[in-house]
Amino acid sequence: MSEKGALLGVAVPPTAPTRGPMKRNAVYAMFYLVLVGYWVYLVRGYMHPRIYSRPIDSELTASDSEDVCLSPSCVHAASEILYNLSPNYKELDPCTDFEELVCGGWRERHDLRPDQGAAFTGTIMSENSQLLLRHILEAPYPNVSGHSSFSPMRLAATTHSADEANFEKLTSAYNACLDEKTIEKLGNLPLASILDQIRTSFPVTTTQPINAFAETILLLAKYGVSALVSTGASADDADPDVVVVSVSAPWRIGLPAKERYEDDALVKKYQAVIVETLGKLVPGQTKDVLEAVVDFEKKLAAASPNNEDRQDVTKYYNPMSLKDASALTPKIGLARVIAGLSGGQDVNRLIVGAPQYLKDLQAILEETDRAVLQNYFSWKAVQAFYPYVSSLAVKPYKRFVNELAGKVRISFGVLLSTVHRNLQYVQPLTSNPLGPGIRTRALAHMC
Q1: Could you please report the per-residue DSSP string of 116-150?
Q2: pLDDT band at 49, cuts 50/70/90?
């Protein structure tokens, strides 16, 4: 029985064609389970059997108070629940309109901003966390505080040094993103520098350098950008105590979802935006070559798995040796990519999320002109860095994205996630050589 068969409890041929990759939603699912559990805990305490049959506004008796938590934390939690109840909760039947009864007050106190499509308690928690992070990043390093068990002063000497170095890197990146004068002065120079590196790494010549694909994929990975394939490291589904490297199709090809490429009107507008944007950033390109980038993306989208398959363990869990996985798409030099991302660690086994995608990718690359491929790599860089560039050249794509998502600004949360996602932290805090720590770029290119 294969590794996949052992995981699923059935006999699965080792070569069975499968599709789909990683399991990001597990993290979100765990978050929501914890949130729901906390809510149930509060409601259970609030609707205690001893007081449930009594009107909410009535006074507690001496015997009741013995079983009711009256600490400041409990009182605050109970008041929050009462505050969120519908203003006319006494008139509502929880059996017919429970959602309005428990959430009506919350909705009245929280209006959607123009850049929000939805909001719930998790949204408020996230924004409160962002506010806390903002205060941390805008304050000096707490090297004199020892009162808390989480104080940096309680860390070992070597760890403390790494912690302070990481903090300085975070604040430097954060301040660089807020330095609007410098950003305005630089214009598109930081982005142009990255585009020059791409053209050097993947030149349009009759004889390309060895491993041109692999080196360009690694170049973009250094800046936190996935191209052609997506890599990562996580717990093995068959053995959670083991960390395994995974390879799959990118989660996003160009447009937000593969289904959007079936919208002809949207694709035509997207194509015009690429022609206008790349035409300004990389002059000398013909319109046909720039338009062909979208055609290339459509092929990648058609070959990539759908979201359902991406989250189906029977589809995305395909253990392979590095040699066998590399043979699916020899052109990209997968072994070189993994070696470059693993930081010198020996990787011989992979979980291939979409074997059929890798097979199709080989054929797609062989039939695509090198100039189109070079522009595809350049476009991936533009898509990654356009929010942090002050230049008229990227205005068309900014307008397109805002219209597509209904957003009018870059949120503070996007800024914080960018700072975290794209910095290579100092050891020993970096735990995953193929995770967020590998995504590093110079602070001059951060915004």
Answers
A1: -S---HHHHHHHHHHHHHHHHHTS---TT--SSTT
A2: very low
